[in-house]
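Reply to dn_fold:

You asked what the input looked like. This is it:
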Amino acid sequence: LMDHVRAIRQQVYEEADSPDVWNRLGVELAFGRARFVDPRTIAIDADDGDHREGQQRDGQRRVTGRFFVIAAGGRTSVPPIPGLTDYLTNETLFELQELPGRLGVIGAGPIGVEMAQAFARLGSSVTMLDMADRVLPRDDAECADVVAGSLADDGVRFLPRTTVERVSRDGSGFTIRYRRAGDTPPEDGAPAVGEVPVDRVLVATGRRANIEYLGLDAAGVQVDDRGIVINERCRTNIRHIFASGDVTGRYQFTHMSEHMSKVAVTNMLLKWPARIDKRHVPWVTFTDPEIAHVGATAAELTRDGKSYRTYRFPYSRVDRAITDGVARGLIKVYARERDGRIYGADVAGHAAGEVISELAVAMKNRVTLRKLSDTIHPYPTYGLGVRRVADQWYVQKYSPRLVKLLQRVFGYRGPLQDIGPDDII
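and this is what came back:
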């Protein structure tokens, strides 16, 4: 399996990121550690021994520029847990040569749940610990419960409201000592204070920006506890220096790094006032089933006093999901009742990332639920689930008074349906 993963990774690299790709585009690559020596100059400590024009005798090359984009990325943020050594991260995990019989996962965010499920399905006994009271705390609670149910079915043991106090070596493995919030043992039966013996420990507690070795002080670039400080045009406090992606501490999604880079270059070279699109940011966690989100959350809309209604449709009534045997999940859309303008959406289910993409396009282009409902979708597809949830806007607009008027005008007969706010039609 790991041979397969590495082969796919190499294929993606060669087709998208290898030096040959950039050379064909006319981009010069310089390998080594780069840092600012002043606001207009970077020094590159070459790692290949190659001496090029502008390179000093000590192997250091200096490059000046009219503009700079800092895209140095991020890495796993490792909490200061006593005894935590020889741990795995999402970068080193795929270099394993043997399957851990017992895997401890610290963190129940996207990386934690993805890897916990994957290794449980490969045969590892997996225990996942997190201080939050549920998995995927940034996602909609109802949708996250769908993923939590799947994790439990796969045998993942999850300890919520749990702080890891120490990790100690135990022969060839490790012992994770933990303490749980509250005075009484939780319903899952785990003690308030206990230990989990494991063979390997995966740290999945978020990301931090790579800013330590960039010489940002020499350039005068401002940083905060998240990373490089930028405005909505990806410009730092130094006008000719821009930054994008994980190094800014924002969003930390590959697709948002790409979006931010486009914004930076548009402002830098074309002088067009492009801004980061904060209102339509999608994300997907690639568990089985997937969970996805775009736009505002229900909690944010409530906090901001926004008037909205939640329209929902279960995967159990999406015919494609039924035929594929993956009918667990739901689609939720938060929209303005008057005209169906979409504010945000959550999806838990098979191909949720594809489903959320249609909703992201609709939001960006102000396509309302009414227009989505009126759009012909092919049958049977997962996209049809989007149209079906949009249909619920029409259902909720149902007016018995209007139907009675139509009956009187046209002479129609028949009983009126009693449709409640939670009915799925």
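The two ends are 44 Å apart (CA to CA).
Hope that clears it up.
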